[in-house]
Amino acid sequence: MNTTKEIVIAPRNSTNVRLRTTLALLAEHQDAGNSVAPSDVMSQAVAAVPFDAKEAELLSGGVPRGYKALTTATAKLVKAGWLVKGRSGWTATDEGIRAVHAFADPDQFINAMISGAPVPEQAPAVTHAPQSPESLGEDAQAVQADPEAGVTASAEGSEPPATAEESDISETMADLAPADATNSEDPTPPDVAPTLEVSPDVATEQVPTRTPADEAWQGQPQSVALSGDFDPLFGEAGHWSTDLRELQFVWEPTENLWKQTLQLPAGTYQFKILVNGGWDENYGRFGVRDGANHELHLLSDTSVTFRFDYATRDITTS
User: Fold this and answer.
1) Does the pLDDT value for residue 163 go beyond 80?
2) What global pTM score does this model have?
3) Is 245 helix (H, G, I), strand (E, B) or coil?
4) b/e per residue, 230-263, with b = 16+ CB within 10 A?
5) How much is the pLDDT for 278?
6) CATH 2.60.40.10: which residues of the chain?
7) What is the largest CA-CA distance in the chain?
8) Domain spanning 219-317 has what CATH number?
9) Which CATH class is domain 2-115?
10) Looking at residues 164-186, what average pLDDT do you find?
11) Which of the given ranges, 128-142, 229-243, 296-310, has the highest pLDDT on average?
């Protein structure tokens, strides 16, 4: 009975540790000003907390079971408000960063995430005590003894210099002032671009509007394709091709994904994802750029649909 509990609980705890590690790594990259792909962050979390034998088993799409569990679990971070997933990547929120620091224990981290418990505010910065007069120079001691003396000495005979902010405001006001403020008799207004009046019918027909499909397309590449050892299906032309039309993906705006379906003979296939028609940008296992080949094992002739999410660089098959 105890052995059964260990088998069931261990993978769940490992996923919890990786989930906290993923958010912690993302926060570190943000603090350093680095832009990192979500797949790279998760790969780093897996490297920090390796898979066990069960988690390393490959699913139908060639993705390890543990990696799929981690990818699914990140939705909980979004629900808790600790992570934001966007087309340009992932962002750890301020509350998520505080949660990483507040809950060093993965179980506490997960419990707070699921329960919605408030995240403690970060402790205030430590204020250092002022230096003793003995450690200061004579001038500094004089200012510390009589703070006004230092101000009077610097201001004697002249007004204090303008701060950088005041200088910026002065320059801005000068730019906004008329070129010839004294010429108030000239009533001629400045040249104004004529306003074009458009009838409602014309406006409806001619003014373009942004559709959800247009919004989804923002940030997407020009093309996505498979490249691998598809010789059994296409002969020599299918051997790691970069331009075979049958291996080009189709953009599906309703799903915000790239898709392609192939009727594949039984066998083992290795492949990568090519972006914009060449090898300059390609993705392998775990969505890693220039990573190891994806693998697909088919026991019988099967219709396989490939789905590629450019936001995560992840691929699934069904």
Assistant:
1) no
2) 0.40
3) helix
4) beebeeeebebbeebeebebebeeeebbbebebe
5) 86
6) 219-317
7) 97
8) 2.60.40.10
9) mainly alpha
10) 47
11) 296-310
